[in-house]
Amino acid sequence: MAMLNSNGFVLTTVDELLSWGRRNALWPLTIGLACCAIEMMHAAASRFDLDRLGVIFRASPRQADLLIVAGTVVNKVAPMLKLMWEQMPDPKWCITMGGCASAGGPFPTYSTLQGMDRIIPVDVYIPGCPPHPQGLLYGILQLQKKIKEKGVKKYDKAFEDFRKDIERQGLIPREINV
Ligand code: SF4
After folding, report:
1. Least CB-packed of 44, 50, 126, 134 within 10 Å?
2. What is the pLDDT of residues 60-83, one digit of tens each?
3. Where do the structural domains in the chain lie, given as residue ranges?
4. Ligand 1 within 6 A of 129 CB?
């Protein structure tokens, strides 16, 4: 983004504008799995106040674009988490908060998923047991940086696949552009 002169004109690109909107309005799904979720709640409360970064927790996966996996993921809950991830609209991102969500943590057992990236793609891993709220804040800032670097062009292919998909299913006539 470049300031042209002192008369208040700003020059930018559509790509940068969309990317700016996306990274400054991350809406995480309201879900916590274990002890790390307490630290996530702490980050959202008044002391750290995630709202000021545009991070506002939503109660429905249909309105969320960020999944913060905070806590131990047991094999019984993993399919439900995957379903919620699939219900979130694109583009979407995932942060694993703490050792458990990132790699099984202190539970290398048959009943615990050894890392969320075994079932969905993860963008940022936050170490710790549990990480401090500052750790989550730092992770969100890293995600914002990543979104800025990638821009929005990489989603063109996803939109194209989606268009082909609904055409194939006969949901819209071919002549209408989506
Ligand atoms: S990483 Fe530690 S604090 Fe977080 S859910 Fe696992 S055991 Fe609890």
Report:
1. 134
2. 999 999 999 999 999 999 999 999
3. 14-153
4. yes
